[in-house]
UniProtKB/TrEMBL annotation:
This is Plant/F17O14-7 protein. GO terms for cellular component: membrane. Coiled coil: none annotated. The keyword Transmembrane applies. The chain crosses the membrane at residues 240-267. Residues 1-26 form the signal peptide. Pfam families: DUF1191. Keywords: Membrane, Signal, Transmembrane, Transmembrane helix. The lineage of its organism: Eukaryota, Viridiplantae, Streptophyta, Embryophyta, Tracheophyta.
Length: 309
């Protein structure tokens, strides 16, 4: 085994260590911004010629079957004068203005379904409804969704039309009975704002928002439940640290062994080179042929006789 093979084995051990210690996919939290960037690219590819005022479902791969995305292109003037209902979950009142102002905008509706808790979480609370999202983009060019994100601001209006209504119907809420849901508004950088909800027989639970974003319903965890979640987190944290320590120790021992093997091999090669150099500096032998074999020979030197007294 030469030194190059030793280094190849070393890299193989390191890569295997990284793969082994990487958390399972099921336990990871996902990045919502990466998801939105993927959906925007998908929408522009799958809906090349959108019509203004038509709601399109954005087709997603099979591994996103629990998630639903829809998009609609609107004129800013039309939205400001009439408002719009985007699916049955969102009601946008009149007097909404995009910032910066554009002639047309694309409004993307999101329903993260059963994967909601993978993308968003609220400390010491449990998410009991799907996370619903409402995002606005510039759509003034030929592309359905351009890269410019827009902010939606409500300029005013009649009573009852001064906020965006987000509806959570009873069938999608799976919290325990007796707990009053709280509206969670998710902002950038992991910020969460908690607000009261209203309830009606026809609309279910309603969150009122002043801008675009992501929303869900949460309930506070009881002290026992919070402790149980914390114990579970610490338990898996200790296992992760133990696995990391064992894996690092194994890699360290493997690397030390490879270094020792490489050092011993280097010493052997050095001794071989020294022996070859000594042999080259010594007396050269002649050669003669015996059949088809070449044999070394030394010239014969007669020992001079000495006279004895």
């Amino acid at each position: 085994m030469d030194l190059q093979k030793c280094w190849k084995i070393t890299w193989l051990i390191i890569v295997s260590h990284i793969i082994f210690l990487n958390p399972l996919e099921g336990s990871k939290s996902y990045d919502p911004e990466s998801l939105e960037a993927f959906v925007v690219e998908r929408a522009n590819k799958e809906i090349p010629k959108p019509r203004t005022g038509t709601l399109y479902n954005i087709p997603l791969p099979s591994n996103f079957s629990d998630i639903k995305f829809s998009v609609i292109r609107l004129r800013s003037g039309s939205l400001r004068s009439r408002g719009v209902n985007i699916t049955r979950f969102f009601n946008l009142p009149p007097w909404i203005k995009p910032e910066p102002y554009v002639e047309r905008m694309a409004i993307v509706y999101e329903n993260l379904g059963n994967l909601s808790s993978r993308y968003y979480n609220v400390p010491n609370h449990s998410i009991i409804a799907p996370v619903l999202g409402l995002m606005a983009y510039n759509s003034s060019g030929t592309t359905l969704i351009e890269s410019t994100r827009l902010k939606l601001s409500i300029l005013g209006g009649r009573e009852g039309q001064t906020s965006i209504k987000v509806r959570f119907f009873q069938g999608g809420v799976h919290g325990k009975k007796g707990k009053v849901p709280i509206c969670a508004v998710f902002g950038g950088g992991g910020m969460v704002e908690l607000k009261n909800t209203s309830k009606s027989e026809s609309e279910g639970y309603v969150c009122e928002a002043e801008k675009e974003g992501h929303y869900s319903l949460v309930v506070p965890l009881l002290e026992e439940e919070a402790e149980k979640v914390e114990r579970r987190r610490k338990f898996w944290g200790r296992r992760w640290n133990l696995g990391l320590g064992i894996g690092s120790g194994v890699i360290g021992m493997g690397l030390v062994g490879l270094v020792i093997v490489g050092f011993v091999m280097a010493l052997k090669r050095r001794k071989m080179r020294e022996m070859e150099e000594k042999a080259e500096k010594g007396e050269a032998f002649g050669v003669f042929w015996v059949g088809e074999s070449k044999m070394p020979c030394a010239s014969m030197i007669r020992t001079q006789p000495t006279l004895e007294n």
